[in-house]
C-alpha cells in the first residue's frame, strides 16, 4: 500500500496530523514506538500533573484542531490522555503501535519508512517524534537491554530494582515502583542511584516521594554511584555493574564496592538528547549556532533547517512539534534566521494542521 502520508510519532502533533489527513481524505499511517498514542506524554508527565491549554503570547490565533485542545479548566494528564485515546478510537485513526521508527529510504516517487515492524511506503513523511529521545547509558560493554522508560511498573514487583538518574523523571519512576510494590506487599527495595552526591528534584516531586517513603516504601539511595560495565554472566544474563563508594588511593589503586543488577531490573532516566544524531542519520541538514546568531538556542546547539512549510532539506519530509522546539533555522525569502518554536501542545497541533494543508495542496498538483 502506498500511503499519501506516513506520520512518525503519535503525540499531539502526530495525532492531529493523522486526524487532519483523515478529514482531508488523504491516506495515512501513524507510526508510534510506544504502546499507546501520547506515549511521550505518558512517559514524561508526573502522575496527576495538570495539563494547560497554554498559548505562546505572540500567537494570536486559537487551536487549529479544537478536538485535541486541552480543556480551559486544566484536567489531569491521565484524563487528557484517556480523552485522546477515546478520540483516536472513535475516529478510527490508522495507527500502528510498538513500531520504532528507524530510517527513511528514498525511492522513485515514494519514501520507504523503516520501522521495527517493517517498512511502510508514503508519498510524504511527517516527523513528529517529539524531543524526548531518551539518552543511552554509556558504559563499557553493551547496555542496550536497560529500560529508558517505565512502561509497566508491575514488571518490577518481586524484583530488586535499580533506577539511575538524579532528576524529576527518575524520581517519578522511583515513586511509581515504590507505590506498586507497596500495593502488592513486596518488600524488595528500589535502589536509586545518581552519579552526583545530591539528587535534584522539585518540591512537589520531593513531597510525593516523602509520602511514599512514610507509607512504607523501601528505598535505598546510592549517591555518587557510577554505572561502569555491561556484561553477560555465566548464565547468559545481561548485567549492569554499578560502582558505589569509590576511593582512589594515592598510588593509583582504587577501592570500591560494586553492585551487579540483571539489566531487566534497571531503568536509566538520565535525560533526553536532541534529535541531531537522528537527523544526521536521515541526512537532514542542521546548522550549528554560533555566538550572536541564536537567541533561543545556545552556542553549539544544532538546529534543524526548515522552510516556512516545515519541510526539511530532504524534500517531501516534514518535521513538526516538539521535535523542532525550542527553535529551528527557518529559510524564507532567501535568508536563514533562528525561529522560536515553543514546546507546547498548541504549537504541535497547529504545526500539524498547517503541514497537512501544505501536503494536501502539493498532492493535488502532482
Ligand atoms: C512534564 C511536562 C509537562 C508539560 N506540560 C504541558 C502543558 O501543561 N501544556 C502544554 O501545552 N505543553 C506541556 N508540555 C509540553 C508538551 O507536552 C509538548 O509540547 C508536546 O507533547 C509536544 O508534542 P509532540 O507530538 O511534538 O511530541 P511528543 O508529545 O513528545 O510525542 C512524540 C511521540 O513520538 C513517539 N516517538 C518517539 N520516537 C519515536 C520513534 N523512533 N519511532 C516511533 N515513535 C516515536 C513518542 O513515543 C511520542 O508518543 C509539557 C511537557 C513536559 C515534559
UniProtKB/TrEMBL annotation:
Cross-referenced Gene3D superfamilies: FAD/NAD(P)-binding domain (3.50.50.60)
Keywords: Flavoprotein, Oxidoreductase
Highest taxon in the source lineage: Bacteria
Protein's UniProt keywords contain Cell division: no
Claim: Flavoprotein is one of the keywords in the record: yes
Protein name: Thioredoxin reductase
GO molecular function terms noted in the UniProt entry: oxidoreductase activity
Amino acid at each position: 500500500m502506498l500511503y499519501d502520508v506516513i506520520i512518525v510519532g503519535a503525540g499531539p502533533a502526530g495525532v492531529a496530523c493523522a486526524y487532519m489527513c483523515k478529514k482531508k481524505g488523504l491516506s495515512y499511517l501513524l507510526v508510534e514506538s510506544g504502546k499507546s498514542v501520547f506515549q511521550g506524554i505518558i512517559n514524561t508527565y508526573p502522575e496527576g500533573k495538570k495539563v494547560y491549554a497554554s498559548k505562546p503570547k505572540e500567537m494570536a490565533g486559537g487551536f487549529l484542531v479544537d478536538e485535541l485542545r486541552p480543556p480551559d479548566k486544566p484536567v489531569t494528564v491521565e484524563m487528557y490522555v484517556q480523552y485522546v485515546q477515546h478520540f483516536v478510537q472513535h475516529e478510527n485513526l490508522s495507527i500502528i503501535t510498538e513500531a520504532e521508527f528507524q530510517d527513511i529510504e528514498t525511492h522513485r516517487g515514494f519514501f520507504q519508512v523503516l520501522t521495527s515492524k517493517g517498512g511502510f511506503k508514503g508519498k510524504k513523511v511527517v516527523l513528529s517524534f517529539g524531543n524526548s529521545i531518551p539518552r543511552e547509558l554509556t558504559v563499557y560493554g553493551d547496555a542496550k537491554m536497560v529500560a529508558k522508560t517505565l512502561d509497566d511498573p508491575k514488571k518490577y514487583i518481586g524484583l530488586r530494582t535499580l533506577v539511575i538518574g538524579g532528576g524529576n523523571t527518575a524520581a517519578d519512576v522511583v515513586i511509581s515502583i515504590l507505590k506498586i510494590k507497596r500495593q502488592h506487599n513486596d518488600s524488595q527495595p528500589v535502589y536509586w542511584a545518581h552519579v552526583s552526591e545530591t539528587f535534584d528534584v522539585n518540591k512537589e516531586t520531593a513531597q510525593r516521594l516523602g509520602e511514599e517513603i512514610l507509607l512504607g516504601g523501601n528505598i535505598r539511595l546510592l549517591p555518587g554511584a557510577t554505572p561502569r560495565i555491561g556484561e553477560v554472566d555465566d548464565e547468559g544474563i545481561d548485567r549492569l555493574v554499578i560502582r558505589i563508594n569509590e576511593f582512589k588511593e594515592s598510588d593509583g589503586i582504587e577501592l570500591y564496592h560494586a553492585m551487579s543488577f540483571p539489566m531487566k531490573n534497571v531503568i536509566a532516566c538520565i535525560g533526553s538528547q536532541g534529535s541531531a544524531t537522528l537527523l544526521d542519520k536521515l541526512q537532514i541538514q542542521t546548522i550549528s549556532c554560533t555566538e550572536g546568531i541564536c537567541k533561543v538556542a545556545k552556542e553549539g546547539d544544532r538546529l534543524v533547517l526548515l522552510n516556512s512549510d516545515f519541510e526539511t532539506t530532504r524534500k517531501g519530509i516534514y518535521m513538526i512539534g516538539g521535535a523542532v522546539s525550542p527553535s529551528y533555522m527557518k529559510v524564507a525569502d532567501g535568508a536563514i534566521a533562528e525561529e522560536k518554536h515553543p514546546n507546547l501542545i498548541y504549537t504541535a497541533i497547529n504545526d500539524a494542521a498547517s503541514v497537512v494543508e501544505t501536503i494536501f495542496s502539493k498532492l493535488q498538483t502532482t
